[in-house]
Amino acid sequence: MPAMKWKKWKGIAAAAAMTVAAHAAQAAVPLPALGANPAEVSVSGLSAGGFMAVQLHVAYSATFKRGAGVVAGGPYYCAEGSVLNATGRCMTHSTSIPVSSLVSTTNSWASSGAIDPVSNLSGSKVYMFSGTSDNTVKQAVMDDLKTYYQSFVPAANVVYKNNIGAGHAMVTDDYGSACSTTAAPYINNCGFDLAGAILTQLYGPLNPRNNGTLGGTFTEFNQSEFVSGHGMAATGWIYVPQACTTTSCRVHLVLHGCKQNYTDVSDQYVRRTGYNRWADTNNIVLIYPQTSTAATNSCWDWWGYDNANYAKKSGPQMAAMKAMIDRVTGSSGGSGLPAPTGVGTSGATASSMVIAWNAVSGASGYNVYRGGSKVNAAPVTATSYTDTGLAASTTYSWTVAALNASNVEGAMSSAATGATTGSGGSGGGTCYTASNYTHTIAGRAYALYGLTYAYGSNQSMGLWNIYVTTTLKQTAPGYYVIGTC
Q: Which of 378, 416, 423, 478 is 20 to 30 A from 215, alpha carbon to alpha carbon?
């Protein structure tokens, strides 16, 4: 990848990902295609994230080849679609977990193609952690997970750490609550670097972590292009080390636990759990997907609260995260559906535009994006959409993506542009004409991959340099469109 990509990330980092205030004020950007190494992908998670990490590792074993880190999780398909099983045997171990039956189910689903072949698991690695003071997910559940993995992963490839007095939490060596605590934000200082231990087990010896200022960038990305609803938030987070803008890097998916998404604990899980400082010096891209508060207790779906196929490759949350990996490792879309063709605009008024496209075979619906931000609240089942609330006499750009039955997107279409009618009028906003570079410095736009985008509308302004001049009209605080006054 060209060195210019680092400049692009630096341009967005200064304004888009440094503070909570910036997070609230700015629109998310598309998850980047970084050309990361698909053979170097792994996953880890805590609690519900631990159960989900096991689900992803087993169901998508051809993707998560490096393996999984599991903190306070349990065997694959432990709940068997029952919330009573989930809160009983899979957490308190009030009854025994039928490990042999779960192994049989795994083999059966692999044979049918519902999940990847179990033979993939034999080359992966597993790191397991259970605190002795964890009364939420008992150590007996993790013991059963170790037994489960024995059917698929060589014993030499499994590490099980279970002798620290930690409560139900992600463990660090320098941040969080007292070690034995089980309370928000569920991050405990136990004097043990769990993130480092997990990544070392999965990837082998690592360079020393960066305990100073990180050299990479945090970016809030648009999750909605991978799945709409299904207990997932509209946005997630990605950390990209500086080297990964020019080097094909590893990828690690990090899954928070219940009551730990961005709304619940702000950026503590994505910034303070210890992963980033190891990633920074070891060329590891970190993806932090997020549940929404609409999810039960902000948990990932590991017992079927959202979908009966939650543990299979077709599970909506599962497929969405697989699609995120595909994007970062270079895939153009997660569902395999092709990009819609024939996208065009018509019927312009002073405040609306009709966007139409050709039908995609196999699509159950479509998402429409204006300047990179999704504008439809629910999937569009027709092959046209009327976008409203636009500024007069302004040029916009739209793209369209097809959705499969799980609302996972395929490849994005080419952009179609169109201008609304009328005049901005004396009250139409303030205009600024400047180079695209100056707009980014002034906070009216951001740079990403050599292109410039207006804040708020996310309209593409062209190349990020001092030579391209654009007029931006501010129509609301923090919201700019390409246009004139």
A: 478
